[in-house]
Task: structure prediction
Amino acid sequence: MLREFMKRLFNRQDKTTKVVNQIDEVYKKSLEDDEIKDAEQSAAQKVIEYVRKNPENAIEILKGILEKDEIPNKVFEKAATEISEIDDIPDKVIPKAVADSEVNVSDKIIENIIENGSVNRPEKIELINNIDDEELKQKKVEEELKQIYQNCEKTSELELVHKLETIRIVQKNPIIEKLEEMIVAKRMALNYRDFGGTKISTLARYLPVDKMIEVNIPEMVCNEYEKIKEEEKNKVDKSSLKTQILQEIAKKVANSYQEVGEFVIPQSRNMTQLTRKEEENFIKSIQTYVRKKLRATDITSIRDQIRGRDTNMLLKQYIEKMKRLPKAQLEMFIHNIGELVENNEELTVYKELKDSGMIENLQKFSDDKRKDYIKVLNDTVQKRVEEKSHNNPNDKQTPNDEPEI
Result:
């Protein structure tokens, strides 16, 4: 049985190689009589002709022409663009060929396929994810978010959250963040139009309730409603919507209290601007969700945090996060933070690395690239230390001393 499988596999590979070579011959022959562009189109038509007849081999053929040095990637671009228009061939063959190929397909080729083809949304996201240039990737994500915003009316809350989650493939910039907030606000405004109110919990799976207060979602919902209100009757109640969001935050605070034993209130400018009545109702909601009467000290602490007066707020947030860590990870964290605090030099170095953006950049790298980066940095620092030692023979360094950076 294994022998039969291997035989079929090799026969399939031989067949793919044969077809790719035929496409190469078509390209070279056309190149003798035609311009490069026409030769590329002729080769692309040969690809499409074969894939139409053998859709089960589409990925191998597309991958093969990408990896064939003699065939320009423009042939793949032209073939993939037309294949995306053919209903009988699933779009997934295009991003799959790009991802599986051993060559690095240029960002421009991918961009042209997205721009000129009719690739379905899930496959388009996969193609965008294969773009190396971060700014171009962000631009494509922005375009997708604008489409989601335009089609909000046809999209349910669950589907909307799913679409937003599938597009989490790039580091967010301010435009992306704003578009996400506008999408959530528009869906809420549409809920007010259609149902006279809105739920918070589903959309809060993507945009957390504390973020909703921070960016003033009630105001954004009113602005979105203004755009669709002409013939509508269910006016947005901004105060009621804000109360709903605050209740969800209260529930989150109460759940956190049950886990870590501390009341930790999310901090934002809008939280500090709650009215006295909103503040009282918020505290009552927390009390309801923790199912016990709050002590006077608890109420004072919560009120101080809401108003931004609690000097221990940052510490409480760290404690909350630490208590959620697995035991082994927590012990390692406490050990490392203890060493860092006791060593002023290390603390200074860490601050310099954070301020320079180096730590943030390292988080974007893959594990292998991060290790290479750190090794180069370490070698450079070590070399500087050795040079300093050589130039200052009296300045001896013991093996346990940290090198100066």
Q: What stands out?
A: Residues 2-33 form the longest helix (32 residues). The chain has a mean pLDDT of 80.
